[in-house]
Each structure stands twice: as structure tokens, then as C-alpha cells.
Design brief:
- With 434 residues, this protein is an alpha/beta fold.
- Helices cover 39% and strands 24% of the residues.
- The strands form two sheets. Strands 1, 2, 3, 4, 5, 14, 15, 16 and 17 form a nine-stranded mixed beta sheet that branches.
- Helix 2 packs parallel to helix 3 and helix 4 runs parallel beside helix 5.
- The mean pLDDT is 97.
- Bound molecules: ligand SIB and zinc ion.
Amino acid sequence: MADIIIKNGYILTMDPSADNIKNGVVVIEDGRITDVCEKTEETADTVIDAQGSVVMPGFVNTHTHAGMTLFRGYADDLALSDWLENHIWPAEVELTGSDVYAGTRLACLEMIKSGTIAFADMYFFMDEVGKVVESSGLRAALSYGMIELWDEEKGKRELKEGKSFVNEWNGKADGRISAMYGPHAPNTCSKEFLMKVREQATEDNAKIHIHVLETEAELNQMKEQYGMCSVNMLDSIDFFGPDVLAAHCIWLSDGDMDILRNNNVNISHNPVSNMKLASGIAPVTKLLDRGANVCLGTDGCASNNNLGMFEEMKAAALLQKVDTMDPMALPARQVLEMATVNGAKALDINSGMIRKGYNADVIIVDMNKAHLNPLYDVPSHLVYSAGSSDVRTTIVNGKVLMDDYGVVCMDEQKVIDEARDAAADLISRVDAKK
Ligand SMILES: N[C@@H](CCSC[C@H]1O[C@@H](n2cnc3c(=O)[nH]cnc32)[C@H](O)[C@@H]1O)C(=O)O
Ligand SMILES: [Zn+2]
């Protein structure tokens, strides 16, 4: 007997070797997808009727700072440097482990409700984040964000903290959690520090998550400091590889794109944050044309201001079209790939497709809605019309985290109340210091 059978749904496999199934069945056992077919004789403990819905791989959000939900709407309409240096960083000084716990719980709740099955995070108090991910049932690639600022002592402390997190958490929660090194960016970490991180990551068999060329200011600073841009500098120290997840990658030259592609670097595109902070437009179409693995992230809630991947997909598609003045650029199907298949590849997880043997990381999207009818093309609706609140069911590792809009893995109201209280208390501490 199987654990779960999902029947009567439109199966959007995202599997290049398999067709979608108009009225199909997905069978789940021991955390894996064991069958994808038109009909089955199997029985299961749980049978989910997906009539009128799309059954598809859940989303992979490849760049977040989950705990920043507490800063949702706190400081808007500012440029990145002003926003970080004058608003966010002074407020983050007051953050405690329990704040990050509460903020990350809220983030996980939001992600489960909007169909995200895995996320890549970079923040502080990562033990708290690890605990939340472990109990929530989600998957995550977590990193302690290291900022060195050319201060050798700070660098030592940061690397020590990063390393102890990697050593404790890599592979935990039955493999649902992987731990990465998180050097913040080439303009907040020195070349020497980045070399040490690269060496340590290789030694510990851990991946690396870093911001790269998010702003023109970073590009200018790098040229002044090293006489070359961040990508060339990182390439000169052999930093890149398929184990690197580089967020943003906006200010790239054609040569930089070749370097990222040739080194199989995973690139997290975060269009909403990039537009909100007016950081620029990443050359996603050119990167994809080169065969680079471009995936999709929301960035933190203070620069988005939510963690919804439907909105992110639509923004990605529209932004490339207007940037290239080509309405055929980044079509719906390709954006869906970024949000599922490519994200799973970046985090090195066997998810992102509805395929036999893959992780049972499956969502069900309710299409019986006014804004989703009539239905000609499923990818089109998912990218251009659907929203976070259309996700009915979220399954991760074969466990139902939300079914028929009801979150079963946590007490939704309690999570919201606790985050609201933590935020109010945090901001009153920040204000008291002003
Ligand atoms: N250990 C570090 C913390 C780094 S966590 C990662 C950092 O990235 C910041 N952050 C959030 N969004 C962005 C962004 O879009 N670009 C650059 N940094 C960001 C976030 O506020 C947080 O300070 C320290 O002692 O300061
Ligand atoms: Zn970021």
C-alpha cells in the first residue's frame, strides 16, 4: 500500500522526457514518487482528489533571508546601500535568536502556503533557522551570512561561525537540510577572505552562497580596488564551480556570462527585489541562451515584500520582455523551469519534476477560480494569472504540510501572532536606540 495517491489532476511533470497527463495519478511512498500514470490499481492511506487542479513540482526559492519577514514593509522605497546601511543593518544589530526563530517560522508558513518546497537562505542565528526547517518539514540549503569588511579578526570569527554551522547541519533532517558557506558579497568580503572560504568549502564538501554584482556600485568598487569586476576577481582565485550559488548577477559583461556558464555556476535571479531596490536588470535571456543554470528567488521580505514564487515568475517574464523589447523573450514554460527544475539543480536535490524516483515534493494548484478560467494553456495560467493563494496542497518529502488550504505542520495563527509580537518588540528596541 502506498502512502499517498493524488488522482484526477492535470499532471504538469516538468520532465523533458515525459508528457503532461490530462487526468492522471501520482503515487507516493516513503518520501518518493513511485508512479506517474493515467490510472492505478494501487491503494493508499491518503487519497487526494485533485479534480480541477494542476499537480506539479513545488517551487524552489533559491535566494532568501527568511528571518527578514520581521522587516516586511519596515523600510521601503530606498536604494540598496541606504536601505542596508542606514535602516536594515542598524535594526539587525538588535535581532536575537528568538526573533530569527519567529521570523523564519512565519517565512516557512508563507512558503508552504504559496507552494515552495525548498529554499536557499543566508542569515544570522542559523541554528534557529535549522530548527525551524527541521520541524516545518520543508527542505532548505542554509548558510550563515559572513561579512568580513577587511577586518581580519572579524573574518576569523565569521568563518568559525560559518564552519561550525556547516559541520553541525549539513545533511541533517534526513537530508532535507544542507548547509552552505555564505560569504555575503565581494564588496563586503576581501579577496583573501573569499579564498579562505573557497578552500574551507571544498574541504568540508559544502556549497557556497554569495551575492554577486547586485549593484553598479559594487562593480565600480571592484574596478577601483582590483582593476577588474567581481566575476573576474572571483575567477582569478578559482572561486567558481557547480557548487556556487550566485545571487543577482546583474552587472555582467558578455565575458562574465561566459565565465559563469563555463564554470557551471548557478545563478539566482531575483527580479522583484532588483526592481524594488532599482538594482538593475539581470541579463537572464542571454544567460539562458548560453546554457547557464538560472533559477529564481525572492530575496528577503524587506526587499520584495513577500516570498511568493508565482509573483516572482511573472515579474521575471515581464522584466525580460520589456528589457529586450521582445515579447517572445522568457516564455512561461521557461520561467516555470527556472522556478522548479533549475532551482532543484542549483540546490542539488532530486526534486523539481514529477518523475518516478524523485522526491515527493509536490504541490496542487486549484484552477477552479475566476482568474484562472477559461484554461487553454497550463504554464501560461501558472505564470501570468495564478497567485500564492491558489495553492491548495503542499507535500514535501512525502509528507503533507498543507492539504486543502489547511496547514497541518504548524499552528498557523500562533506562528502569525508570535512573529507580530517579536517584530513589535524588536522595532521598539531599535527605536529606543535612535
Ligand atoms: N554575519 C553578518 C550577517 C550577514 S546575514 C546576510 C545579510 O544580507 C543582508 N541582505 C538582505 N538582502 C540583501 C540584498 O539584497 N543584498 C545584499 N544584502 C542583503 C541582510 O540584511 C543581512 O545583513 C553580520 O554580522 O553582519
Ligand atoms: Zn540577498
